[in-house]
Description:
Distance between the termini: 74 Å
Shape: rod-shaped
Radius of gyration: 29 Å
Order of helices and strands: EEEEEEEEEHH
Helix content: under 10%
Structural class: mainly beta
Strand content: 15-25%
Number of helices: 2
Strand order of the largest sheet: 6-5-8-9
Amino acid sequence: NNGVLMDTVVATNGTWSYTPTALSEGIHNFTASATNANGTGSFSAPATVIVDTIAPLTPTAAISADGFTISGSAEAYSTVTITLPGGATVTTTANSSGVYSVALPTREIGGEQLSVKATDAAGNVSPSVIATAPLLPLAADDNVVNLALISNAVVTPPVHYSDYGTLLVGALGN
């Protein structure tokens, strides 16, 4: 184990096995050697084992001012999972510096809370952090297609508006 003799075992019918005691956190390089009756032999190529039981630190997360992307930092090469309102998830991978950024499937501009966590290569999961979306006012010229409006308001008497803003205010009863 990293150049330190751990034990000696004797092969039975040419077969041997060895189970090490608990290994510490980190990288372990194991080699083996077989010695013949003359006492000669050589070492095998190293087999590397990485022990990782420590969860990543809590990532950082911020939603852009326009609500289109979320960015932050996490453990390098970790998988970053963003849980959206309603429970759907978006994943991305932090780069070698730990930086990540991903486009959100729906523009988040209503103060929504998104949960962000990181998972390392060993499957250890970080604590979650909450990112709160900005509160942006309704802009009818670019939200008509993207904003679902539901109203049970009744406009009496029926009025036919030609301006979307007036129609929106009238339909919501404000």
